[in-house]
Each structure stands twice: as C-alpha cells, then as structure tokens.
Design a protein that fits this description.
By secondary structure, this protein is an alpha/beta fold. It has two domains: 219 residues, P-loop containing nucleotide triphosphate hydrolases (Rossmann fold, 3-Layer(aba) Sandwich); 63 residues, Alpha-Beta Plaits (2-Layer Sandwich), CATH 3.30.70. The protein is built from eleven helices and 14 strands. A hairpin with a 2-residue loop joins strand 1 and strand 2. Helix 2 packs across helix 3. InterPro entries: AAA+_ATPase, ABC_transporter-like_ATP-bd, ABC_transporter-like_CS, P-loop_NTPase.
C-alpha cells in the first residue's frame, strides 16, 4: 500500500535536547495511525513537522509522497488538521467560524457548514460564540474545521481532549467511519491508552523523542506478555510443587503467577501436576497483558 504520511529519520533539536530523535514512520491509505506517548514525549513536535509548522533539524517528512513544504499550498488542499488547543475566533459563533473556514477553502457549497455542524453534534451550539463553548465542544469545533473540505488526510493532535465519555465514543466512531467508508488516512496523537487501542488500526509508541514500538492488533498479540494465574487450596504447597516441576513462580497476595512459555502454551499441564500431587487449583486462568501494562513496561525497559 502507498504511504500517505511518512517520515525518514526525522529529528528536531532544541539546543542539545532532542524533542524528536531519528523517527521513521509510514502511514498507509485508509489507515488510522495512533501516536501514543506521555505528555512531552514528542507527539506534537512530530505533528508540527508533518504539517510544515516547524522545520526538522534532520531528515524529511512526506505527505502524499511529496516533501513537506509549508509554502506548497497545493500540498495542503487535501489535508485537514488540528494541533493542540484548537483556535477559533472567540467572538464569532460556531457557524460563523465554520463559514470563514469554508470561504478560506474556497468551498462553493453553502450547506457544508451546517452539515459538518450536525455531523459533529454541534447543532444546539450553532449560534453560540466559540469563547462560550466547553472544552469538549471547542474540540468538536476544531475537528469540524479540519473536516470542512472533506480532506483525504486528517492529522489530529489529542482530538478527544476535554470530551466526556459519550463524546469520546462519538469521535471514535466518526474517525473509524471516515477511514473505513471514505478511505481517509488519519493520524491521531493521544496519551489516552484505552482510547487509542479502540480507535487506531496501528499504534506507534513515542518516548523521549524516539519511536520505541510500533504494532497492529495482530502484532500486539505476539508482543504482550501472557501469564497464568493460579489459586490453589494451599498456595505455599502449590508453589513448591510447581517450582520442583521446573516452573518459574511468583506470588502476589493470594495468587501464584507463572509466565513460563510452557505454562502459557499448556496451562492444563499445571492443573495436572497439582492434581497429581493432591493440591488441586481452585482457579486457573491465562491473563493477557493490556496495552496500558505493555506501554509502561516497554517505557521502563528503555529507561534502564
């Protein structure tokens, strides 16, 4: 598949500080790429370089195969974006702000502003000044402005910031619909691990300016740790039995944990060993590592 958004060994230095350090990424057509990292990890700096707002110290950024150049106005005809806190004219209404965006994009269809207002659930605020909007609705207005010309590429920095749970689900469903049914290529950044995992088709983790992990749902199955949790009638005895049978066991509160590959592949063997030694398990199940645990584990490994 063609790379719609790409960087090639891109870096950004502020003095000796590397805000972004030698990052290469490729986002394919119709993909939702989730850029995940803690605050200050380099997400916004990456997005600003992709949009030509700041120049990289090293490397190059590409949109639709073209080197990013802020002065190449044709490059931005099919790009919609929102970076950090969305800017709007505070004294103008939601509708007036979108009308300005429509006219700046030279869109002739005068009904487009109202359609996008409806799509972003802003109808009841259509005549409200933007300065009076809640943080969540300011986000909606920012996304509406990014979508006013129905771009083929959408780049959004923390798009669900300030939204309530229902609003987060609405934006998630909107983005997935745009990618699946309209072929729009989307790059979003976030520090919300759970939301990224539900929205993105591929995830890149950035930490201290470096892209330290990149995966899709299938890859994640192989990356995340799997453990077997055991609660026996006598945990101390069960632990001794399993250690004597070559299993690596740790104990936490009332549960024994085993992450040996042989245990994960064949947890029933653990049950057989315990039953044979007259110490049957009360419960035994396999637990898969969640994205949050993987995220903090991989970050900790990089800091060692």
């Amino acid at each position: 598949m063609n790379s719609i958004i790409a960087t090639d060994n891109i870096s950004k230095y502020y003095g000796k500080l590397a805000a972004v350090n030698n990052v290469s990424l490729n986002v394919s057509e119709g993909e939702i790429y989730g850029f995940l990292g803690l605050n200050g990890a380099g997400k916004t700096t990456m997005i600003r370089m992709l949009l030509g707002m700041i120049k990289p110290s090293e490397g190059k950024a590409y949109i639709n195969g073209n080197i990013v150049n802020a002065g190449n106005y044709r490059l931005w005809e099919n790009v919609g974006y929102m970076v950090e806190m969305p800017n709007a004219y505070p004294e103008l209404t939601v509708y007036e702000n979108l009308e300005i965006a429509r006219k700046l994009r030279n869109i002739k269809d005068i009904s487009v502003s109202k359609r996008i207002i409806e799509k972003l659930a802003l109808t009841e605020h259509i005549n409200k000044r933007s300065k009076a909007l809640s943080l969540g609705n300011k986000q909606r207005l920012g996304i509406a402005r990014a979508l006013i010309h129905m771009p083929k590429i959408l780049i959004l920095d923390e798009p669900t910031n300030g939204l309530d749970p229902a609003g987060i689900v609405e934006i998630r469903n909107l983005l997935k619909d745009l990618a699946a049914n309209m072929g729009i290529t989307i790059l979003i950044s976030s520090h919300l691990l759970g939301e990224i995992s539900k929205t993105a088709s591929r995830i890149g983790i950035i930490h201290q300016g470096k892209l330290i992990s990149e995966f899709n749902a299938h890859d994640f199955e192989n990356l995340r740790e799997k453990t077997v949790l055991i609660e026996a009638t006598d945990n101390n005895r069960a632990k001794s039995i399993l250690l004597n049978n070559g299993y690596k066991i740790t104990e936490s509160k009332s549960v024994l944990t085993c992450c040996d590959e042989k245990a994960v592949m064949h947890p029933e063997k653990i049950a057989e060993v315990l039953v044979k030694n007259e110490c049957p398990p009360k419960s035994l199940f396999t637990r898969n590592e969640e994205l949050e645990s993987y995220f903090f584990r991989i970050i900790a490994q990089k800091e060692v």
